[in-house]
What we know:
Layout: H1 3-11, H2 13-29, E1 39-43, E2 49-52, E3 68-74, E4 81-84, H3 95-102, E5 109-114, H4 117-124, H5 129-134, H6 137-140, H7 157-166, E6 179-182, E7 186-191, H8 194-214
Antiparallel strand pairs: 1-2, 1-5, 2-3, 3-4, 5-7, 6-7
Helix pairs in contact: 3-7, 4-8
Amino acid sequence: MRDADNEIQRYGGGNMLTAIGDVMRRAYERGWITTRDGNISMRKREGRYLYITPSGWRKTIVHPEHVVRLEITEDPVTHQLIPNVREGQSPSGELWMHWNLQRDSKRTRTVVHVHATHIVAAIYAGVDLQKISAEFPEIARYTRVGQTVPTLPALSRELADVTAECLGLKHDGTLAFDIVGQSNHGVCAVAQDPWAAYEHIERLDHVCEIVLKSGVAAFAFTPRVSSNAA
């Protein structure tokens, strides 16, 4: 049996890969993505492979056999670990956003990126996600919300790097926060499994919906300036 199959069986990853498709379908049902939007990655603790949704694939029909399996190898120049994309493989265009958050993790980790409607709308309206989250116990108790990522080009390395910064990525791979909004774009959430990451998004989206429907003036929001900016 192949090493990848051994890894999946050893960690019960078959259920995790099934959950990736289930979460994508649920995100579509909730209007958080259109058919080909959104992406999810998963890496098992000390695993040799990164599993990530395919680029351009209809997310309503993602099943375990469609998830792209990338072998993690050492870059011959930098000697850093990188996901090796072989010929014929087509991982999500947001691969580097995922890899930034997966590379140094010492635990099983899932990263979910979708375009949650009320979160994106709240950011666009000027709402400070950290401030409102602190005022609603149903999210403050369970989900740590980081500073919002400023408007940056989708698929860019800068978006990937600043998303990691806003999630409070440390050298040991741990994170200060569970979720961040991304201006004019979406949201990135991190947890051990796909459904736990989904719940972080669900809580924040629900609170944003409440705030938007309340009619109160938006809280002041100052876009974060990346330390990577020129």
